[in-house]
Write a structure and sequence with these properties.
By secondary structure, the protein is of the alpha/beta class. The chain has a domain of about 70 residues. It has eleven helices and ten strands. The protein has a six-stranded mixed sheet with strand order 6-7-8-3-9-10. It has a four-stranded antiparallel sheet with strand order 2-1-4-5, covered by helices on one side. Strand 9 and strand 10 form a beta hairpin. Helix 3 packs parallel to helix 5, helix 4 packs across helix 5 and helix 9 crosses helix 10. It starts with 12 loop residues before the first strand and ends with a helix. Bound molecules: adenosine-5'-triphosphate. The site of adenosine-5'-triphosphate has 10 residues, from helix 1. Keywords: ATP-binding, Nucleotide-binding, Transport. It holds the Pfam family ABC_tran. It comes from Pacificimonas pallii. This is ABC transporter ATP-binding protein.
Amino acid sequence: MSVIKDDQRGPIIQVEGLRNQFGSQIVHEDLDLSVNRGEIIGVVGGSGTGKTVLMRSILGLQEFAAGKISIFGKPITGLAEKEELEVRRRFGVLFQNGALFSTLTVAENVQVPLREFHSMTTELMDEIAGYKLGLAGLGPEAGPKYPSELSGGMRKRAALARALSLDPRLLFLDEPTAGLDPIGAAAFDHLILELRDALGLTVFLITHDLDTLYTICDRVAVLADRRVLAAAPIKELLEIDHPWIQDYFRGPRGRSAMAGDRENRKLAGT
Ligand SMILES: Nc1ncnc2c1ncn2[C@@H]1O[C@H](COP(=O)(O)OP(=O)(O)OP(=O)(O)O)[C@@H](O)[C@H]1O
């Protein structure tokens, strides 16, 4: 029987009083964040504000100096091994550079988490890999290819297929549209939205892409001054009188994204 109950109410991720420090550099101080079940939450902030460190802390990859992080209502520190494995297999993670294994085919990459957590026949694994690649918008011809044989956009999709391999409830995406052209980025955004709706995912999404924030995020968490300054729909963030928020969302790129101009940039090919 599962030790993690997924039908409970309340936030799916709860971060309270988080402190992260490297030597004398304090990255997070008293940082709080709640992520609600089924939402797509965007995480933004200037370079070096600790977006990736926050994600790594939630994933249990980064030991933190103080605070408490709970996922599915369970604190992530001090879990018994069985519980920790069960929490981990409910995450799907797409790291910033995709992080596919270059010596494995795309299908084998998708099968890596399956091999880690399950024992199943090769036929079944091939079937699952094909299905997950399909979910990520790749055809069966992608399976036998090596990552180096794919375009940047296809590599992102392959990495997404791998992140989906264990049927996660919670998907973490670090800069998923970085390096994609505007058409590829818009298509990827659309895919995330579709998958959230079809699979009932909760999505934690680090991005600098204002179009993504406007198009698919239910709320946006702003990291500044070592904490989450606010986590709210963009319309509410626009009311906050903080220089970074005002510059970011009301600057030229913010205004363009607000007007839905990605379509125009797509047409112009920029
Ligand atoms: N393992 C580490 N050792 C020392 N310092 C680190 C380590 N990991 C992160 N940092 C520092 O913590 C700060 C936050 O890093 P992080 O990668 O989370 O920033 P970010 O907000 O994701 O930035 P970007 O938008 O540029 O990707 C940076 O100053 C970084 O140098």
